[in-house]
DNA sequence: AGTTAAAAACAGACCGGTTGGTATGGTGGA
DNA sequence: TCCACCATACCAACCGGTCTGTTTTTAACT
């Protein structure tokens, strides 16, 4: 893997675990076994540029993952259940939700940096769009589909937060059980 | 107001806006017009002790606010709608949700500090308990009430995140419209 | 009530360490 | 020869935290 991709990969993980301010450049370059010069060669505008690159990678990865699941199952209900159970598995195995959430970055940076806020907004938008497409295929009206897609995004994101604080996967499981009621 | 309360008050605001790592002690003491010695007199164990004190204050304030609303309205549905519309008003007036959320602290610190994680877990628990009590009064079974209370907590918290990233109050509004469906 | 000593509250200089960021120089391949 | 790529040394600014010393409040005793 080329150096730039390596940096993005490692930094994405660290940012998700510890938040933006919680990770120093020194920590990143040590984890990558590279030098500071190398990092600033690939990201001349420094840490924030790197963060945005990470958010873009995350965007692609999360989107790809969700799209795949939503293509495999016939209805929104089944797809959502499969998606959440995958989240639960991941959480119970690793104790984190790395790769699926970026709430720490949102709440840290949304009010501090417009570019970062925008990148996060796009990511949520993309996820929501996937849900919505499936909901439309299920026969919902545009308005209904939009509202339900938003509800799904919000409740899943919120449930992730609850799982992290409680160190239990139950919140996600309960959300999964309750989702059909909205459909 | 005594110095200690002042510190907690100012720090709570700053932490909510910029996250834990995003606020330095120097920024806090400057905003309070006090000295470092004074801060460490009241919080000898430093920044983390201060944060936990802030979370406890937040706990009381949020709880008090929610309880008041839930006492004023006869059903969970009406109370929840009133509560969310208050959030919306606050967000549209000030552009922030200070005083109502602490997701930045959760996602930043949950994996780094057990005491902080615990304080956050307690806060969520308390909020959920208020919802649940009302739901039981509405006639739901214990299991149903528990599940719905969790769903409410998660979706509202998630909607706040979405509002912050989008700079719009719509997510909260839509959640409010959709909540009756679950009841 | 007046004196005094202890304790609480506060001030600010200072510490080692780390932060994000820069400047310069080397190296290998085209 | 040139340039992308990387390494190193270095910087000012800031971090959380400690230190010593001063002011202010409290309480006890005569």
TrEMBL record, chains A, B:
Alphabetical keyword list: DNA-binding, Transcription, Transcription regulation
Keyword DNA-binding: yes
Record flagged with keyword Transcription regulation: yes
Domain HTH tetR-type: 1-61
Coiled-coil segments on the chain, per record: none
Annotation: DNA-binding region: 24-43
Alphabetized InterPro entries for the sequence: Homeodomain-like_sf (IPR009057), HTH_TetR (IPR001647), Tet_transcr_reg_TetR-rel_C_sf (IPR036271), YxaF_TetR_C (IPR054156)
PROSITE patterns documented for this protein: HTH_TETR_2 (PS50977)
Pfam family, one: TetR_N
GO molecular function terms attached to this record: DNA binding
Domain of life: Bacteria
Protein name in the entry: TetR/AcrR family transcriptional regulator
Organism in which the protein naturally occurs: Psychrobacillus lasiicapitis
